[in-house]
């Protein structure tokens, strides 16, 4: 029968947690407990020692990440049960980089029947049709793809994006835990990526430096892939390019070539930058955003005054996500989990009013959207609740998107006094040398281990802060947040300032306390 992608996802889920109740695993994978037990038995058949044990209703795994990776690397094609979705991804990537694929030879190499190939081809045609693409046959060669070149590029990037890492030495490498078919997809692209990644990194870093911007890790990988494809497969007049977008793209300078620059701006409109960009104004989107915000806030137990800052943040988020959805691309954040359980009432409120965007843009929210919006709104709930100035300076190193990081910061400011100096992804840690800071916050074991190995002052925290986290921070010298000011000192600070200057001063110096 062989191991499947779902089996490996189950193993990684339990391995990452080491210990978790069986019923929670069943809920996570939307299966019953008997099915989970069978899957675990199947996994253990392929290992000399059990990878997972079940004792008294708990799933236990003492496997390290390295052992997990070694286990996956040891899986042969004969022992792997691929799905049709995995197989057609290999076909798409092969066609993109080779021009065509001999599907009969490919399926023969996998030991699969012509019936399976026929069924997969039907699924491939349906997928391509959803992207405005068509499967065609090239005489004496095999299958190829025609249609909207931009949709095809984003489809290929969406396939490759999870399969590679962008190292702190600015190199592209295959992800350690790729399955046999994921490895095959990456290998098809490897030659192109190795040839173009050096100049692509230079172009990317120059753009970010000139614009004074930074990207979260998934967005940086996404844009790097787009640049590599633009360099290896230059745009020409023979290519079909549809500009029928739901929203106008950004208008930034990335390339001196006007046609290329427009395509780059489409990609830029889909990314998660460290600060909100000025997206073009779209009256319908602004009105829909206002309706959504008003209904959500009105449904809260303690409604707050809706300010333009809140609307701007929502507008930018929806602009980006609607553009991503148009190209069927997704950025899934696996670091932050259980948002629904943490804020069930708010999560359900946002679910209720997501229909506004379905009606206006045929944009359906996924859990990823509900979770990010829940954290974004909860951040403003915390911010609007009615000083200690000796705050430790902190930076955050993570791949989590910036909306979620901003919630984390607002949350932790409820407990301790701190000054946030910036958020960086793992391949930007060299930038820490430029900053004055006291401590680094991170959320994952991988990032913690990398930073600890360099003797950096790092603390790993839960994204949803626990009392244990607060106690750990207090023992590291952080102070609890005080909500009182020394009157005489405060009056002296404001003396001689105009009303406008006072407002600006309070926002800059006491942004944690004045809204």
How does this model look, in words?
The protein is α/β, with parallel strands linked by helices. It folds into four domains: 5-79, Arc Repressor Mutant, subunit A, CATH 1.10.10; 84-254, no CATH class; 283-383; 392-475, 3-Layer(aba) Sandwich (Rossmann fold), CATH 3.40.50.2300. 53% of the residues lie in helices and 9% in strands. It has 22 helices and eleven strands. It has helices spanning 5-17, 22-28, 33-44, 65-73, 84-98, 103-109, 114-130, 149-160, 180-211, 217-232, 258-268, 283-298, 308-326, 339-342, 344-353, 355-361, 367-383, 402-412, 445-453, 467-475, 487-494, 499-509; strands at 19-21, 53-55, 58-60, 133-138, 142-147, 164-166, 172-174, 392-397, 418-424, 439-442, 458-460. The strands form four sheets. The chain has a four-stranded parallel β-sheet with strand order 9-8-10-11, sandwiched between helices. A three-stranded antiparallel β-sheet has the order 1-3-2. Strand 8 (392-397), helix 18 (402-412) and strand 9 form a beta-alpha-beta unit. Helix 5 (84-98) crosses helix 7, helix 9 (180-211) crosses helix 10 and helix 13 (308-326) runs antiparallel to helix 17 (367-383). The radius of gyration is 25 Å and the shape is globular. It starts with a helix and ends in a 6-residue tail after the last helix. This is Transcriptional antiterminator. Residues 92-155 form the Mga helix-turn-helix domain. Keywords: Transcription, Transcription regulation. It holds the Pfam family Mga. InterPro entries: BglG_antiterminators (IPR050661), Mga_HTH (IPR007737).
N-to-C span: 60 Å
Write down how many β-strands occur, each being a DSSP E stretch of 2 or more residues.
Answer: 11
> What's the number of helices?
22
Structural class comes to alpha/beta
| Rg, nearest Å | 25 Å
β-strand percent reads 5-15%
Task: Label the overall shape.
Answer: globular
User: What is the assembly state of the chains in this entry?
Assistant: single chain
Return residue spans where pLDDT drops below 50 for at least 5 consecutive residues: none
Largest sheet, spatial ordering of strands: 9-8-10-11
Largest sheet: 4 strands, parallel
* Helix fraction by DSSP (H/I, runs of at least 4): 40-55%
């Amino acid at each position: 029968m062989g191991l499947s992608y779902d089996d490996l996802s189950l193993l990684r889920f339990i391995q990452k947690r080491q210990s978790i109740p069986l019923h929670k695993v069943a809920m996570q994978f939307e299966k019953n407990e008997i099915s989970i037990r069978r899957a675990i038995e199947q996994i253990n058949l392929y290992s000399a020692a059990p990878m997972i044990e079940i004792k008294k209703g708990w799933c236990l795994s003492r496997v390290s990440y390295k052992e997990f990776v070694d286990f996956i690397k040891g899986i042969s094609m004969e022992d792997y049960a691929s799905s049709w979705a995995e197989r057609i991804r290999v076909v798409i990537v092969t066609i993109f980089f080779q021009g065509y694929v001999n599907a009969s030879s490919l399926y023969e190499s996998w030991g699969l029947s012509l019936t399976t190939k026929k069924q997969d081809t039907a699924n491939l045609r349906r997928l391509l049709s959803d992207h405005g693409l068509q499967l065609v046959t090239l005489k004496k060669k095999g299958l190829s793809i025609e249609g909207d070149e931009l949709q095809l590029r984003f489809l290929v990037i969406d396939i490759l994006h999870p399969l590679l890492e962008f190292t702190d030495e600015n190199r592209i490498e295959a992800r350690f835990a790729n399955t046999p078919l994921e490895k095959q997809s990456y290998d098809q692209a490897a030659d192109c990526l190795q040839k173009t990644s050096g100049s692509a990194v230079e172009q990317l870093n120059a753009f970010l430096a000139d614009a004074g911007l930074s990207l979260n890790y998934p967005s940086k990988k996404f844009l790097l892939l787009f640049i590599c494809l633009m360099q290896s497969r230059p745009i020409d007049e023979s290519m079909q390019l549809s500009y029928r977008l739901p929203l106008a793209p950004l208008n930034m300078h990335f390339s001196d070539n006007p046609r290329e620059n427009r395509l780059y701006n489409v990609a830029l409109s889909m990314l998660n930058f460290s600060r909100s960009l000025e997206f073009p104004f779209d009256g319908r989107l602004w009105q829909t955003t206002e309706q959504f915000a008003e209904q959500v806030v009105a449904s809260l137990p303690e409604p707050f005054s809706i300010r333009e800052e809140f609307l701007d943040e929502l507008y930018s988020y929806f602009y980006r996500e609607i553009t991503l959805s148009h190209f069927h691309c997704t950025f899934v954040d696996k670091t932050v989990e259980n948002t629904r359980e943490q804020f069930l009432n708010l999560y359900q409120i946002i679910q209720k009013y997501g229909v506004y965007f379905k009606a206006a843009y045929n944009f359906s929210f996924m859990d990823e959207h509900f979770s990010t919006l829940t954290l974004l709104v909860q951040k403003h709930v915390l911010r609007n609740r009615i000083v200690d100035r000796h705050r430790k300076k902190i930076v955050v190193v993570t791949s989590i998107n910036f909306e979620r990081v901003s919630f984390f910061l607002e949350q932790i400011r409820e407990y301790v006094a701190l000054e946030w100096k910036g958020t960086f992804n793992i391949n930007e840690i060299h930038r820490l040398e430029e900053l004055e800071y006291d401590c680094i916050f991170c959320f994952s074991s991988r990032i913690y281990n990398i930073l600890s190995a360099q003797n950096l002052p790092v603390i790993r925290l839960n994204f949803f802060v626990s009392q244990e986290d607060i106690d750990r921070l207090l023992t590291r010298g952080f102070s609890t947040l005080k909500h009182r000011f020394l009157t005489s000192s405060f009056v002296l600070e404001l003396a001689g300032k105009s009303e406008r200057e006072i407002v600006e001063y309070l926002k800059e110096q006491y942004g944690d306390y004045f809204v």
